[in-house]
Amino acid sequence: MKLYPAIDLKDGNCVRLLQGDYNEVTVYGNSPAEMAKKWERLGGDYLHIVDLDGAKEGKGINEQAVRDIVAEVKIPIELGGGIRSLEDIKCQLDRGVDRVILGSAAIKNKALVKEAIETFGPDKIVVGVDAKGGKVAIEGWLEVTDTTALGFCKELEAMGVKTVIYTDIAKDGMMQGPNVEETAKLVEATHLDIIASGGVSSIEDLEKLEAIHVHGAIIGKALYIGAIDLEEAVRRFK
């Protein structure tokens, strides 16, 4: 199981939101590049970066911070937030980002997902499926749709998507454990590589996710408050 340390960008800072609420922000540092180097040094093998301002505005906002991170670390980076077109995808891949995450764009414009996979290949495109009560949420989690997470994942698989990041919004930032049950449904019902996100608060949570055979787990707040020691986690799950 791969471990993905998370860096969320807002106003050029490293932050965490509570349940995706832009009014519930905790700032954990003003140098994303330094934070990225720290997670790399402690054994992180893939960085998960989200431009929160970009997710809300529909265009890349924290571009300088992304450039700085790419310049400072050697481990691969996946980036989401505000990526809405083939041009946006190409721009980020050319910049040195390893793969891009399509979120709201994926559910609003399924043709984009298909085109992106045909153009850049399935290894370069990840789809973020964010759910609340089993339904997909979009626009920085501000709008909940009628589409079920499982139904959407099956559609994505049929389109050629290989990797999905599944986030349960109700769990995100709450330090109450991930939604193992819902995540397991996606693992069992599809052949997708499922990366679990939201609520990971302990080594025990990671063990539960490993037991349901997720491809990877994103760790956010738990790293920033010291609830999970990344070096220990890397030793345990390598």
Q: How would you portray this structure in words?
A:
This protein is α/β, with parallel strands linked by helices. The protein contains eleven helices and twelve strands. It has helices at 32-41, 52-57, 63-72, 86-95, 104-108, 110-120, 149-159, 180-189, 203-211, 221-224, 230-237; strands at residues 2-10, 13-18, 21-29, 47-51, 77-80, 99-102, 125-132, 135-138, 143-148, 163-168, 193-197, 216-219. Helix 4 links the parallel strand 5 and strand 6. Helix 1 runs parallel beside helix 3 (63-72). The chain starts with a strand and ends with a helix.
What topology does this entry show?
Elements: E1 2-10, E2 13-18, E3 21-29, H1 32-41, E4 47-51, H2 52-57, H3 63-72, E5 77-80, H4 86-95, E6 99-102, H5 104-108, H6 110-120, E7 125-132, E8 135-138, E9 143-148, H7 149-159, E10 163-168, H8 180-189, E11 193-197, H9 203-211, E12 216-219, H10 221-224, H11 230-237
Parallel strand pairs: 1-4, 1-12, 4-5, 5-6, 6-7, 7-10, 10-11, 11-12
Antiparallel strand pairs: 1-2, 2-3, 7-8, 8-9
Helix pairs in contact: 1-3
Short description:
This protein has helices at residues 32-41, 52-57, 63-72, 86-95, 104-108, 110-120, 149-159, 180-189, 203-211, 221-224, 230-237; strands at 2-10, 13-18, 21-29, 47-51, 77-80, 99-102, 125-132, 135-138, 143-148, 163-168, 193-197, 216-219.
- What separation lies between the terminal Cα atoms? 7 Å
User: Class by helix and strand content?
Assistant: alpha/beta
The rough form would be described as globular
- Average predicted local confidence, pLDDT: 93
| Helix residue percentage | 25-40%
Order of helices and strands: EEEHEHHEHEHHEEEHEHEHEHH
For the CA atoms, what is the radius of gyration?
16 Å
Q: Within the largest sheet, what's the order of strands? A: 1-4-5-6-7-10-11-12
